[in-house]
């Protein structure tokens, strides 16, 4: 069961069918979709509904996703995990009206803390497209380190894009929490 996680301003909770309109609104913005690998552009309400249907299973922690609710604003983004070749991968996005307010920093710190407490995984993997400096700065604040560069297909851009690969180990996370 996906837990609900409360922070100072946020509620991280399982995504619900009624989130579809907000998901479609925020992901149908190239400034958001163009930073994500597997999100098409334009992004329609039918895309959001199909994605939400795919989330209606009981996930393992390595495949858990959280809707991000901001007090007074409702659904503003998503953060979650998927299984990857090297290990669990964290991905996230936030609607553009909420950028620059520390929302994703707060959500990501809570999601990482939950993940390391719920699993025995030694590390979390992630990364950003080379031009996404805000997301890379967020990852560095959490303790992620660059592990290499690759090329990754960005559906919204219709092209392979240079990707900065990152990793956060459990040991680094624990040390930074003390």
Characterize the structure shown:
- This protein is of the alpha+beta class and 178 residues long.
- It has a single domain (5-177), classed as Gcn5-related N-acetyltransferase (GNAT) (Aminopeptidase).
- It is 31% helix and 31% strand.
- The chain contains six helices and eight strands.
- The chain has helices at 20-27, 30-33, 45-54, 103-118, 133-142, 170-177; strands at residues 5-6, 10-13, 65-70, 74-82, 89-94, 123-129, 145-154, 159-169.
- Helix 1 (20-27) packs across helix 3.
- The chain is globular, with a radius of gyration of 15 Å.
- The protein starts with a strand and ends with a helix.
- This is GNAT family N-acetyltransferase.
- Residues 10-171 form the N-acetyltransferase domain.
Q: Per CATH, which architecture?
A: 3-Layer(aba) Sandwich
Number of domains: 1
Here the CATH topology equals Aminopeptidase
Mean pLDDT across the residues is: 94
Helix content: 25-40%
Amino-to-carboxy terminus distance: 29 Å
Q: How would you sum up the global shape? A: globular
What value does the Rg take, in angstroms? 15 Å
Q: Helix-strand pattern, N to C?
A: EEHHHEEEHEHEEH
Tell me which oligomeric state these chains represent.
single chain
Could you list the spans in which at least 5 consecutive residues all have pLDDT below 50?
none
CATH superfamily: Gcn5-related N-acetyltransferase (GNAT)
Per DSSP, the total helix count is 6
Strand content: 25-35%
Biggest sheet layout: 5 strands, antiparallel
Q: How many strand segments?
A: 8
Strand neighbour order, sheet with most strands: 1-2-3-4-5
């Amino acid at each position: 069961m996906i837990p609900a996680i409360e922070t100072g301003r946020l509620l991280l909770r399982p995504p619900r069918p009624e989130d579809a309109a907000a998901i479609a609104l925020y992901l149908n913005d190239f400034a958001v979709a163009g930073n994500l690998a597997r999100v098409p552009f334009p992004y329609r309400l039918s895309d959001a509904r199909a994605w939400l249907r795919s989330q209606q299973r009981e996930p393992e922690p390595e495949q858990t996703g959280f809707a991000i609710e901001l007090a007074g604003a409702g659904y503003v983004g998503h953060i979650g995990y998927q299984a990857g070749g090297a290990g669990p991968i964290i991905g996230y996005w936030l609607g553009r009206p909420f950028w620059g307010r520390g929302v994703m920093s707060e959500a990501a710190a809570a999601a990482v803390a939950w993940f390391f407490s719920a699993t025995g995984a030694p590390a979390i993997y992630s990364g950003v497209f080379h031009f996404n400096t805000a997301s890379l700065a967020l990852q560095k604040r959490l303790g992620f380190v660059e592990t290499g560069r690759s090329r990754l297909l960005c559906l919204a851009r219709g092209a392979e894009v240079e990707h900065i690969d990152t990793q956060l180990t459990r040991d680094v996370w624990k040390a930074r929490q003390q």
